[in-house]
Design goal:
113 residues; mainly alpha; two-stranded antiparallel sheet; 2 strands
Length: 113
């Protein structure tokens, strides 16, 4: 049985506001792209951005885009780890789950085993 892929529809696009410019009709940017896109959608690792900022973030070639993409990856990793630890996991257990899910650590203060 094939798993149904998640996607970001346009149903509520009119209500989305770009976090950088304040423009309406923002697009959803999955912070963890490629093989982790489905995880980004499922876990809510997304930000709403206008078309121009979305294109720049996706291309990831400008210094701004590289800095912002890393900043958001760190933000969502920290938020996810904190939530898991609030639910009773140790930091080590939470990091292990993160690594199993995403495959990479983005936080300088954590060294996965």
């Amino acid at each position: 049985m094939a798993r149904r892929l998640l996607y970001n529809g346009y149903k509520d696009k009119a209500d989305r506001i770009c976090i950088y410019t304040g423009q309406p009709y923002a697009e959803r940017h999955e912070v963890f792209p490629g093989a982790n896109r489905q995880i980004s959608i499922r876990e809510g690792f997304q930000i709403d951005v206008c078309h121009d900022k979305h294109a720049e973030l996706q291309a990831n070639i400008t210094p701004w885009a590289k800095t912002e993409n890393l900043r958001w990856k760190r933000h969502f990793e920290r938020q996810w780890l904190d939530t898991k630890m609030e639910k009773g996991l140790t930091e080590e257990q939470a990091v292990r789950e993160w690594m199993s899910m995403i495959g990479r650590n983005y936080l300088d203060e954590i060294t996965p085993e």
